[in-house]
Amino acid sequence: MCRLLLAVPLVLVLLPLDAPRSFARPPSRPVEEAFNTADGVRLKGLFHRSPRGDKQGDAVVVLLYPPGPDRDMLKGNWDDLVGRLNDAGFHVFRFDWRGHGGSTDIVDPLGDNSPFTGFWTNTITGGWNQRYVRGYNRRPAKNELRVKTDINPSRYLPVYVNDLAAARLHLDQKNDNGDVNTSSVYLVGAGETAALGMMWLAAEWARPAVAPLLPNGLQYKSVPQSTLYAPDPPAGADVAGAVWLTADRPASVPEPTVRAWARSATKLRDNNKMLFLYGADDGAGERDAEWFYHKVLVADGTREQVPVEQTFLYPVASTRLIGMNLLGQASRRLTPLPEETVLDYLAARQKDRVTMVRKTRNYVTPYFVDVNYYLGLR
């Protein structure tokens, strides 16, 4: 059953056939930025600063395309959405996953004998990199990574959560410089990024929002970390909402594991609000969206759990387009445009958060999300 009830209602009025469609202003000119993952991959991103950022409290929206061959952050129909978000006051950040687009350099292949350094040798993702990335035994050590030729896509998906963690740290550093306010972070993703997002959110609820002061100048290294450094306040509370375009259940992650992520972080379902968009004529997309909504988030509630407010299923009428292809269709008869629906949803979520105070985060070095822990492998 689909339901939609927002604090700021979405406009669902059907347009006459000859009515002009609403086109967004072009997105702001992006600034190219680079940052490192905890296992030493250099990622490239684009930051679209909104000239009206004060209108939304300098909130930032992160765009996520599904990893895979021949994909990068410049492909897909994102520009109309980025333009609308910028015009409404949202900053936008998008980046390339490891091995995609410009994110191909391994800057720390072998590390310094620390368990937390080296792409091939660290104790958290090193084993995954050795098994599912070609080139481990090369000498000199392989220092580049390309998804089309080097990565086993069917097994490697969970490791990308560390790229999302690196993007969050990069935004926290921009927060400390006054460029954004990471007290309000939003995700807009397609396909399998919905599952990646669930894993990352579970980790964010286990991570302190502000870097803990550790003895002897040590830095925070991985999520979860010792209970001596309890997440108070937790970083998960900063994620105000997520929109998933044709959420997809990944074959590489068991379904009970995805459900466990939402249940292990008890505040996730109630605080990280979500909108699941899919084509009304896309049967597979509808089934997967309903699986996330009913089975993972249990959004309609049970005898023990109250229903989740502001989390919805939303079928886009008269289309079987999927994922990023739902965007950029202003010339088609989609009413309302998915971009308008996304913007209205985020604006509704941000209405009560626009005055949130920017916190100094103090994170300096990248940290891992322990893939093995969140997959139940240790």
From TrEMBL:
<protein>
    <submittedName>
        <fullName>Alpha/beta hydrolase family protein</fullName>
    </submittedName>
</protein>
<dbReference type="GO" id="GO:0016787">
    <property type="term" value="F:hydrolase activity"/>
</dbReference>
<feature type="signal peptide">
    <location>
        <begin position="1"/>
        <end position="24"/>
    </location>
</feature>
<keyword id="KW-0732">Signal</keyword>
<keyword id="KW-0378">Hydrolase</keyword>
<dbReference type="InterPro" id="IPR029058">
    <property type="entry name" value="AB_hydrolase_fold"/>
</dbReference>
